[in-house]
Amino acid sequence: MKYPYKKLVLPTELKTQINGRLDAGLLVKISIGGHMWKGAALAFNAMNKKAVADGIKLRNIGDYRSYDGQLRMFKERYALVDEGRNPQITRTFNDKTWYLKKGMSPSAAPDPTGKKGSNHGWGLAIDLVVTDKKVADWLCVNAPAFGFFLQGSDPKSPEFELWHWQYCIADAVPEALKA
To answer: 104: domain range?
Structure first.
């Protein structure tokens, strides 16, 4: 299977915002529950409509995340002591190295400056339930036309997350919405 990847480009409207502290008017409800940046939400809702028409049910397990939500999740998943996870995934936060706990999925370290951080904090990422091949295949084939891509294309990387889809095309109109 080919995993679609594209480097995320921040939409112009978000460049003056703070990651995890977006103005409420920039967030829009998405059709399967949760919120995303308005451009991403429009594209996601159109993608979900196609998924339903194709017999695919998309389920949300992680959308826009506030700074406090990202901090809470980070501290649940990472520790200052290496528990021997192999391969180990580390993050730097507050000038310290944090180690991913066994059994946990990676997440971005919170960025107190608001300049970086999780793409969930920009309202551009959504985590979906992708437990069966049918959903994974459908997303890999269809999501790019709606502007959604994976954050990496190498399934052997410990950072690879088949459930994490992000809106990567900044201010461009997704191909699927041009018709």
So the answer is: 67-110
